Structures are given as C-alpha cells and as structure tokens.
Amino acid sequence: MRENLAMNAAQPLRQAPDLADRFGAHVVQALIDEVTLAPKPGLVDIRSCGAHHDLDWKLMCASALALQPTFVELARAGIETQPLLALRERIGAIGRVGETRMLDATGGVNTHRGAIWALGLLVTAAARELLDLAPQAVAARAGSIARVQDRHAPARTGNKGEQACLDYSVGGARGQAQAGFPHVVDVALPELVRSRLRGDSETAARLNALLAVMASLDDTCVLARGGPDALAEMQDGARRVLEQGGAAALAGRRELKALDRRLVELHVSPGGAADLLAAALFLDRLQREAAHTSNA
C-alpha cells in the first residue's frame, strides 16, 4: 500500500503532459512527504496517529491523491487568468470544490482544508510567473492573491481555526498567507538549508524545519484544542529540541520524544505548522527543479 501510494504520487512528475499537471503533482508529493515524515510531535505520520483519533497515514495519503486534480486546476488558473480579482475568485471556487472532493474521499473528515488554502495559493502563484520560482518571489505573489477579497466566499466558515483567530486575536492561515508566508520563507526554509549544510539527514532537516515553525507560530489548530497554555508548551518544547541540537542529535531526539508524548497527552496537534512545512517542501522542490533545469 505504501509503495503504491508513493509510486502513484511520483508518476505524474515524470509523465505530466503540461506544466499544470507537473505542479499539481509536486504539491501532492509535498503533502505525502510531510505526512510520511516521522517522528512528528502530535501529528499523523507513518508510524503514529499522533493526537488524532479520526486520522491516520493511509487516510491522509488518500486525501492528498484525491486533491491532485484540484491543485492541477489551481495551477492552470494561475497560467490562464491575469486579472487578480478574476484569478482570486476562480481559485476560490476551485478550492471550495476541492474541499468537497476531500470530504468525499475521507468520509467527511477534514484532512487538508488548510493545505488547500496554503498550497493552493502557492501553486497558483508559482504557475503565474514561471521565470521566477524563487521561494520568496512565489510566496510574495501568493500574498498578493490572498489579499484580494473573494466576493463569493462565505463571510464565516464555522471552522475551528477561524474561531480560534477570533477568540485569541491571531492571524491564522489567512494572516500567514496575506503576509506572504513568513514562516515558510523566513523560518522553515532557512532551517532546512542550515540543517542540510551541517550534514543532517534529510529526515532530520525536515523535522528541524517543522520544529522551527512550531517554536514561533501561533498555530490555530493548537489554540482551538488546547488554548494559549497548550500553545506555549508546544512552542517551548520545540525550542528545547532545537537548542539540544535538533532531530539529528541524541539529546534533541530525547526532547522530541518528550514533546510528542506531551502533545498527545494534551490532545493537541500542530496542523498549521504541518501545512507550512508542506508548503516549504513544495517551494524547495520547485526551486531545486528550476536549478536543475537551468544547469542541464
């Protein structure tokens, strides 16, 4: 099952007939890479359900694969639609259909609502300007799109993350996007690069990137379940892992296991940070592919 999912996700990368297909496949691969990464504190991964009772690795992978047509459509919208308002409203409609597609695939479980928003904006922005796929440039374009008001979007969604934004006066996923994804370009990606440069394994580097985001993000998934006290514990615990050398160091791994146990006890899961890690992995993949193409 695991091998088949990985092959299905990677196949379009080799055989995509056009750019939108390839970009959509890149997003799906980033989502599968994120959920497969282990051990992630409080989150679903290939070894554990984390703090969840209704999610597991297989369901998350099935959801990601079901969303591939949505991300392809979003990339195609970025290629075809120039006026910002028209683009924003086109991708908003695509995203809402994508949510329905996700819920159909998961039996009504919210697996990737935040990822549809974040990676949907980024894949649209990437496809909009193919000559500049640097992460900062793609994220800035995504921020410009996110700041446009979709006149057809519901005023309130009733989502827990939205309510947490209102309850605790934080920006949440919308604020992160409108600011140009600072936790992706200024936190996750630099940590990924630093970890690789010092010789950490790719698994450790990705875990460190996740922890760097967790250490400072006002994660509405955590706030919605556990409030400010749980958020503070998560942030402090993530900082301790990094201070002890990160996921590649023995002391860091001990702190990581302790943080995982604590988040499961608190029944909180940093889903916002996980979405931003997937976004970072997508932008990293795009940049590396562009560099490889230019050097070929």
TrEMBL record:
Any GO molecular function: ATP binding
Catalytic activity reported: 3'-dephospho-CoA + ATP = 2'-(5''-triphospho-alpha-D-ribosyl)-3'-dephospho-CoA + adenine
HAMAP family cross-referenced by the UniProt entry: MdcB (MF_01883)
Family in the record: Belongs to the CitG/MdcB family.
Protein name (Swiss-Prot/TrEMBL): Probable 2-(5''-triphosphoribosyl)-3'-dephosphocoenzyme-A synthase
One GO process term, biological-process aspect: prosthetic group biosynthetic process
Function text: Involved in the formation of 2-(5''-phosphoribosyl)-3'-dephosphocoenzyme-A, the prosthetic group of the acyl-carrier protein of the malonate decarboxylase.
Keyword annotations of the record: ATP-binding, Glycosyltransferase, Nucleotide-binding, Transferase
EC number, as in UniProt: 2.4.2.52
Catalytic EC class: transferase
